[in-house]
Amino acid sequence: MHALLEGEQIADVRKGGLKEDGRHFDLPARRFWLSPTAEHQKPELLKPAYSHWVDLATASPVGEPISVLGWADVVDVARITEPEHVEAIDGKLIWTADYVSTRFEWKKRDPLWVLVLRVRRLHEPLTVPWKDEYGGCTSWVNYEGLPADPTSVASHEVLSDVAFEAKHKGLRDALPADCWE
């Protein structure tokens, strides 16, 4: 999440978590709160330039209140099904090529989703109490007590329009047109 909130990365890759309905990824919302997590947070999963970011992970310990620092709009979606597509976006991600390849290879019949996110950082973090259902390997967490519409909370875009569009174009150009919705 740190890479998204710093504007270093505008994409997230998803295949679905162990707790997903049917263990398949779905996109139930185009706007969502960014969820701090410690799942898959190991230095060896990140490229060397980013491995120290694991120390900056803001996940709350199990049972402790959760701080929400931002939200995102999904502005574009690609589904990739070929290994060369994974290679094509390698320079756009902070994760190692090996880690992204393992995500790609997991559940081979399902595509790897590439979500292009327009991220906003909250001016002041929001805090919600911990609930057991928030834990575990899942793509979507619906926090009780947060406003239904993130735009109602003061926030700012982490990238200028020009910087975001340049990164977005780079991602679109890296993959074949038929990958994109």
If you had to describe this structure to a student in words, what would you say it looks like?
The protein has 181 residues and is α+β, with helices and mostly antiparallel strands. The protein has one domain (2-179). It is 18% helix and 23% strand. The protein has helices at residues 2-5, 83-88, 97-105, 161-174; strands spanning 11-14, 31-33, 66-80, 112-128, 155-157. Strands 1, 2, 3, 4 and 5 form a 5-stranded antiparallel beta sheet that branches. The radius of gyration is 16 Å and the shape is globular. 19% of the residues are buried. The model has no long low-confidence stretch (mean pLDDT 86).
Offer a quick outline of the entry.
The protein has 181 residues and is α+β, with helices and mostly antiparallel strands. It contains four helices and five strands, in the order H-E-E-E-H-H-E-E-H. Strands 1, 2, 3, 4 and 5 form a five-stranded antiparallel sheet that branches.
**Total helical elements:** 4
Rg over C-alpha atoms, rounded to the nearest angstrom: 16 Å
| Strands, count | 5
- What number of structural domains do the residues give? 1
Mean pLDDT: 86
Q: Which shape, going by the Cα principal axes?
A: globular
Low-confidence stretches: none
What sequence of helices (H) and strands (E) makes up the elements? HEEEHHEEH
